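Human: I would love a firmer grasp of how sequence relates to backbone shape in proteins. Take your time, and here it is.
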Amino acid sequence: MSIESLRPKIQWFLNPIAKFFSHLPITPNGWTIVSLVCAFGAGVAFAFGKPLLGVILVILNACLDVLDGALARYMKISSPVGDYLDHVFDRYADTAIVIGILVWGILGTEPWNFAVFGCTIPAWVIGVFAITGVLLSSYMGTQAQAVGLKRNYGGILGRADRLILLVVLGVAEFIYPSPFILGLSFLGWLLVIYGVLGHITAIQRFVMGVRDLSRKKQE
């Protein structure tokens, strides 16, 4: 079960924050846009080898990503347009951050040289593996809604889990930026984790969807 599934349980904490932000002249969709700008900024920071700045911007992105929905619900202005905007911008945010990390892995001061089982795997392959894992796991979650099921937050690695890993390994990268195992630094291993667990999550959500659709058909 991913951390994402715990979001409804912290609503009590979000309501006072949403109440405060409701007095500001920025709409929930406006905060969604600011959140995306933070994600793009994080991608640029990672690409230029500034992992601590990247982590700070990722945290801002995550906080604002939670805020926009909580604010819309508090103000009773939730809409399909806002939900759609949020999901689309989340995918752009994920892509920008992963690409930024990948650029650093290819063009940084100590480019990744992932050597395993006697083979050298180019950094761009790791990046493609990571970004497809991230996007496919998210796609499987939203696709459940498209076929009449609830949004699927299940699986081993949700977006909240990815952000926590990014913060932890991003700080570790700031402390020790050099490759240390098999030619990869902490952020390099982050992309490997994204790829492996992202694709596992996509498969888990696919299986859940097929199972739920079969049960629904029988009913």
